[in-house]
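Lecture notes, unit on binding sites. The following record was shown on slide 14. It pairs a sequence with CU-O-CU linkage.
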Amino acid sequence: MAILPLQASAAADPLKLTAEAVTRQLLPKSEGTTAMLGFNGSMPGPELRLKRGEQISIDVENRLEEGTAVHWHGIRLENRMDGVPVLTQDLINPGDSKTYSFAPPDAGTYWYHSHYISQEQVARGMMGPLIVEDDMPPDVDHDITVVLSDWIINEDGSLSDDFTDMHSVAHAGYMGNFARAFLSQAEVKEGDRVRFRIINAATNRIFPLTVAGVAGSVVALDGMALGQPRGLSDLTLAPAQRADLIVDITGPVSFDMHSRQGSYRLADVAVSGSNTDRKPEPIAPLAAPNLPVPGDPTQHLTLTMMGGAMGGRHGGANIWSFNDVSDLPDAPFASMKRGETVRITLANDTAFPHGIHLHGHHFYELAADGSLGDLRDTTLVAAGESRDVLCVFDNPGRWLIHCHMLSHAIGGMRTWVDVA
Ligand code: C2O
Ligand code: CU
């Protein structure tokens, strides 16, 4: 079992993340090790635990042989701290450092990852969990982070270095032949109440998940508390999505990915002994997020996902597009006045699912009748379907919108909005 390292929390000021080459034993011990990239000697990078509303600084030092930049996924931070080369900052060149500072406004489960040639750097391991602690944490015995990813690993344990194979870019994207869940703690007792914070850090894979040996609820999605906890069936995470569960341990715990081909074990959690102190109490919702209340939409925009292998005329690096525009255009897709509520129809006119991510904001998924659904920063739109979202654009700056299937993002499915 791979244990996630924990970075002594925000007390250390500034926090330090060193981007560097790391070696991991992903395959069984008797087989080869895997040369990867990571932070502070580990992959995934160390778990950062921050306090809501508390200003922190994180020094990122680049000890790679190429440039990088770090994005704090899902955090509603100042635009110049968003970590997007060209749009919000210059690259951190080899040997250089950059200090990011922000005060995370919302409690919840987030993550950080490279945002430079991210299809390759994230696939090589440049990602880690970022937890913003609740003001009043729920009553649980353990708070365990679960990071999911997958990789194409050769027989000798080395990572395949074909991250941009055109066939996969034009289809579902880079898909690993090996997937794992890394847990911050690998042992619990029967009867314990546990919060699991699950993060899909894979570059392209959608994880349909089953968690065995537990009874409980989903309490948050993409960091944002649900108004009412929800059942554990249909637990599906697109790349970059998160789900927080609060569950009682009822037996041997395992995380499995299920598919038509059957079930694939991602991690086991050892259960030893039993917790007899805990009284069975209903699982309460987490504190409601404090986000701006949407007004009547002043713009209704449509962003149509186009392209792919079945999509016709795009080719090369321009396989995918939004509204027929591939890659980052010079002009924003839309301009918003700060505070404006905007409705966006995300229409998937392709033969593949896409997980669409907006930087710097959360948005509501809208039900067919227009009522407010879940708050998300990444929404999964199935092939041929469309989803409306509603967003209060209250964070000034230049914000990316892209498919978080990172093969599709490098294939051209990205654009940006300007909020002034
Ligand atoms: Cu998770 Cu543009 O990023
Ligand atoms: Cu996509």
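Take-home: Residues 15-133 form a domain with the Immunoglobulin-like fold (CATH 2.60.40.420).
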